[in-house]
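Below is one such record:
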Amino acid sequence: MSGQFEATVEVDRPAEEVFAYLADGRNDPQFSPRVLKIDRIPDTPTAVGTIFRSTVKDAGMKSAREFRITALEAPVKIRWAEVSKTSVMAREGGYDLEPLPGGGTRVRIFNVLEGHGVGKLLVGLAVAAARKDAPGFGARIKAAAETAIDRP
């Protein structure tokens, strides 16, 4: 069983700069409180094949996660797939960015969550929780990106 959640938000910053901010997954803790630590491997600019290794806390439990960048098309598309083996994982996820008139960027984030083993019983709960938080998650991305990216 699997399910998807998504959120769309408008960021008051240029698409190229929002893309660069989001492509560097080391920024994730700025808008995702579940991410406790994250590293980029190799520690070079993000490219297809880059791995982000993180420690996250879900439902009071810490776990290790690894995501591989599967597509990177500046400044409009970022895709990833979770390569760690966890009970509920993100089979696919990404950002779609659309430059807006006036210099802003529409950002759509999505994740397709999939359950394995006991996770098949939990994935519905995880998807429901992610969907419930999706508007807040989008708002946190907007606030973090606008704070991190200086205005011209």
In short: The radius of gyration is 15 Å. Helices lie at 15-23, 119-148. Residues 119-148 form the longest helix (30 residues). The chain is about 25% helix and 45% strand.
